[in-house]
Amino acid sequence: MAALLYSMITSLDGYVADTNGTFDWSAPDEEVHTFVNELAGPIGTFLYGRRMYETMVYWETAHTIPDQPDFILDWARKWQAADKVVYSRTLPEVSSERTRLQRTFDPDAVRRLKETADGDLTVEGPGLAAAALRAGLVDEIHQLVSPVVVGGGTPFHPDGVRLDLELLDERRFGNGVVFLRYSVRD
User: Fold this and answer.
1) Which residue range or ranges hold the Bacterial bifunctional deaminase-reductase C-terminal domain (predicted)?
2) What tens-digit pLDDT sequence spans the chain (186 residues)?
3) Best CA proximity match to 2, nearest among 92, 86, 118
4) In Å, how far are 35, 108, 126, 164 from 46, measured between CA atoms?
5) Digit-coded pLDDT (tens) for 26-60
6) In degrees, to the nearest 5, what angle opens at C-alpha 153 toward C-alphas 152 and 154?
7) Sign of CA dihedral 64, 67, 71, 72
8) Residue 57 gets which letter from DSSP?
9) 114 to 21, 53, 99, 121, 163: CA distances (angstroms)
10) Positive or negative, the Cα torsion across 39, 43, 49, 50?
C-alpha cells in the first residue's frame, strides 16, 4: 500500500504563508531544493487544493524558461511525470497534463487510491491536509522548517487535530533549514 505524506516548507513558528499570504521567505536554495527533489522520487500522485494547485501549476512549463538550473529542471520533470488530483468546487478546469479535478474530498476514495497506487502520494496545502489528517489518512509528516518567524498567517498544523508522532529522520542544511520526518502513530 502507498503512503500518504504531508510535506511543506514552514516558518519556525509553524506557518506556510504569512499574514499577507506571501511565502517568499520559504524559497529553497539549491541544496534544499535538491533534497526535496530526492524526497519526491517515490511520489506518484500529488493531491492539491485549488490554491496550492494554482501555485504549483507553474512547474508544467518551468522547463521552457531559458537557463534554468538542473535542480529546477529535475523538479519540473518529476512534477510533470506525476499524477495530480485537484479538489476544488470553484476551479472551472485544470491546465496541466496528468491532472484530474474532483469537486469534493472523499476520504474513502483516497483510501482506495492508497491501496492501488504504484507510488506514494502527497497531500499539498494545509487546508486539504487538515481534511486528510482528520480522516486519519496521513502516514508521514515532512516539515522543512525555515529559520524565520513570521508572526501569523496560514498554519501548517490544523487546529483541533491531535497526533502522536515518531521522529524517523532529521537533517540540517547550510542555510539554517531543518528537515523533520515523522510517522503518524495509530
Assistant:
1) 4-179
2) 999 999 999 999 999 999 999 999 999 999 999 999 999 999 999 999 999 999 999 999 999 999 999 999 999 999 999 999 999 999 999 999 999 999 999 999 999 999 999 999 999 999 999 999 999 999 999 999 999 999 999 999 999 999 999 999 999 999 999 999 999 997
3) 118
4) 18, 17, 14, 24
5) 999 999 999 999 999 999 999 999 999 999 999 99
6) 135
7) negative
8) G
9) 31, 20, 17, 7, 20
10) positive
**What does the alpha-carbon distance between residue 55 and residue 23 come to, in Å, rounded to a whole number?**
11
> Which domain covers residue 162, as residue numbers?
4-184
H helix intervals, 117-184: 126-134
| Cell digits of residue 66 | 531559458
Separation CA 47–CA 105 (nearest Å): 10
Q: Residue 131: which CATH number? A: 3.40.430.10
How many domains does one find in the chain?
1
Based on its alpha-carbon atoms, the radius of gyration of the chain, rounded to whole angstroms, reads 16
The answer to whether the beta carbons of residues 72 and 86 sit under 8 Å apart is no
